[in-house]
Amino acid sequence: MLIQYYENIDNKLAIIAMNIKSSSAVVFLKVPYNVKKLVTIIFTVFIYSFSMNSSALEVGAALHQGDKRKMTGFDFSVSEQFSRKHNIHWSLSYNSLNDVRVEWNNNSLFFSVDTVEALISRQQKLRTYNSFLKNIVFEYQAGISVGLTENKFTWTELNEEKFFSQKKDINAVLAFSTRYNFSKNSAVKLGIKYQPNFSEFGNIASVYLGFTYKIGKQVGY
Q: Where are the beta strands (DSSP E) in the chain?
């Protein structure tokens, strides 16, 4: 009886494991292709950085609040210093904004916008002996974003389509943030991101709050 009892438990655990595996596969299949592709790119960059014995790779995430009504979003990023001799960094990020507003034909329309951004940045530390202020770093960023989504409005009565953004649209990005380093590995950042002419949406700006963590070799502190 005892042996049969344990065999029943093993069979139930095997069924549960199969269900979990199937559910995970379904969830992965439902992930948009662009997100899968971005995850692959970030993972490739991650492996390449460590294979080249490079400096610390920084991973981060942030929440965005737009200047336009309702607009919110988030981003995931990886970044790294080009070399120990220069205080210049590169970053690659996936960005998603919801309820981006555009005015057209006397109406307010709202869309979701996904992009990949490639930015170059310079970090500037405060020169001070104060234990609190010396952990503050100013970061200036500039680069481009590439569109992953297509947004259009179809006017059925006139059989007319109006595109506000398309895949592979390239737009300029500017950003400034203030970082506070809690340790050699972790930091919190508060900043503003500005896109002066995002496709047909016009200018887009957002304030963001995020957290970063460094993995690998440190270049100093």
A: 57-66, 72-81, 88-104, 107-125, 136-147, 151-155, 160-165, 170-181, 186-198, 202-215
Task: HSE, CB side, 13 Å, CA atoms: give it for residue 7.
Answer: 4
Residue 217: how many CB atoms within 10 A of its CB? 12
Total domains, the chain: 1
We report the CATH number of the domain holding residue 146 as: 2.40.160.20
Q: What is the pTM of this model?
A: 0.71
The 10s digit of each residue's pLDDT in 137-160 is 999 999 999 999 998 887 766 677
123: amino acid identity, one letter? Q
Quick check: helix, strand or coil at residue 213? strand
Q: Which of 67, 61, 60, 59 is nearest to 207 (CA)?
A: 67
* DSSP-derived 3-state class of residue 24: helix
Contact 25, 17 (CB under 8 A): no
How far, CA to CA in Å, does 95 sit from each of 106, 114, 142, 150, 191? 29, 6, 15, 15, 15
**Which two structure tokens, joined as six digits, stand for 36?**
């899968």
Distance, in Å, from the CA atom of 169 to the CA atom of 140, rounded to the nearest integer, reads 23
Q: Which domain holds residue 153?
A: 55-215
Place of tokens 């439902």: 30
